[in-house]
From TrEMBL:
The keyword Transferase applies. The keyword Transferase applies. Belongs to the P-Pant transferase superfamily. Gsp/Sfp/HetI/AcpT family. One of its GO terms (cellular component) is cytosol. This is Holo-(Acyl carrier protein) synthase 2. InterPro entries: 4-PPantetheinyl_Trfase_dom (IPR008278), 4-PPantetheinyl_Trfase_dom_sf (IPR037143), P-Pant_transferase_sf (IPR050559). One of its GO terms (biological process) is lysine biosynthetic process via aminoadipic acid. GO terms for molecular function: holo-[acyl-carrier-protein] synthase activity; magnesium ion binding. Residues 41-125 form the 4'-phosphopantetheinyl transferase domain. It comes from Enterobacter cancerogenus. Keywords: Transferase.
Length: 157
């Protein structure tokens, strides 16, 4: 296996122009890994959970189109929509090898600019941004287990 090196922005990759790209994300005890032979990739994983400041955070970093997407959801679905948008933005940032503060400048609703796919598995929101179109589905997720080892069901979005 080739050496892992880091870009100036901190994005890991393989040395010597090895033709595989990867991205890792984690949240609490869960981890996601995507590997591609088609170009840079990014993934983002978050638990859908309430936070006191999620609306403030959305106001600070979401584009007007992302706000519209959030507001078009039923009130009971807005928290899950927040995490769906957040992980989508995070996957794009990681795919580009950008700094986390650049999340503000990314409009994840501009679908023509990104190849992003998402999936919700139980209380996990997972997004991937790939160099070429990729459909993230439950079948594409090889194994998702909770802390006890019990397999969770996948519900693609």
């Amino acid at each position: 296996m080739p050496e892992i090196i880091y870009s100036e922005q901190g994005k890991p990759g393989f040395a010597d122009h090895y033709p595989l790209w990867f991205s890792v994300s984690h949240c609490e005890d869960d981890i996601a890994l995507i590997v591609s032979d088609e170009g840079d990739v990014g993934c983002s994983l978050e638990h859908i959970r309430a936070q006191d400041n999620w609306r403030t955070l959305a106001n600070a970093v979401f584009s007007s189109a992302e706000h519209a997407e959030l507001e078009n959801e039923a009130p009971d679905n807005q928290l899950a929509a927040f995490w769906r948008i957040w992980t989508r933005k995070g996957a794009i940032v990681k795919q580009r090898g950008a700094h986390s503060w650049q999340i503000v400048s990314i409009d994840s609703a501009a679908h023509a600019l990104h190849s992003v796919s998402q999936c919700q598995i139980a209380s996990l929101s997972l997004a991937v941004c790939t160099a070429t179109p990729f459909a993230l589905t439950a079948a594409a997720v090889h194994s998702v287990n909770d802390a006890s080892g019990e397999k969770l069901s996948a519900h693609p979005q």
